[in-house]
Design a protein that fits this description.
This protein has helices spanning 6-13, 20-33, 40-49, 56-63, 72-87, 97-109, 118-124; strands at 2-4, 36-38, 65-67, 112-114, 129-131. The protein is α/β, with parallel strands linked by helices. Strands 3-2-1-4-5 form a 5-stranded parallel β-sheet, sandwiched between helices. Helix 7 (118-124) links the parallel strand 4 and strand 5 (129-131). Helix 1 (6-13) packs across helix 2 and helix 5 packs across helix 6 (97-109). The protein is globular, with a radius of gyration of 14 Å.
């Protein structure tokens, strides 16, 4: 499975003029190789940004994107990584727990993460393969 970050999914669903084409191309390429999933955190972030939200799950199903919830193990890993972030000097407003939950879910349950935010995930989730759309 390949996890999909909210930024890329929002690019695709909103036809973002800057990143939409690159994100859609990267998503389509990944779908040819593996199953694509979003976790509950990504689903919530997308629902907060995409209108109308009523047919969001139908849109994801039509795209071939499945749902994979964050596990207890991933939630604990996310908390540990956020604590490490703060111990390294990261401030509370710099990164929210959602970012850590997405990374931990991808690391523990998927083969890779499609995201535009590759620096953060590479730093805090060593070993997680990052797939970055190029705009």
């Amino acid at each position: 499975m390949i996890a999909l970050d909210s930024s890329v999914l929002i690019d695709v669903l909103t036809n973002d003029p800057v990143h939409g084409d690159a994100s859609a191309a990267k998503l389509e390429g990944a779908m040819e190789r593996d199953d694509i999933v979003v976790c509950d955190v990504v689903l919530a972030e997308v629902a907060a940004r995409v209108h109308p939200v009523d047919d969001l799950m139908d849109s994801l199903a039509d795209m071939g994107v499945n749902f994979s919830p964050v596990s207890e193990q991933a939630a604990i890993r996310a908390g540990i990584m956020q604590r490490r972030f703060r111990e390294r000097g990261g401030k509370r407003g710099d990164r929210v727990i959602a970012d850590f939950l997405v990374g931990a879910h991808a690391l523990l349950h998927c083969n890779a993460l499609i995201t535009r935010d590759n620096g953060f995930f590479r730093e805090y989730f060593k070993g997680l393969k990052i797939i970055k759309p190029e705009a």
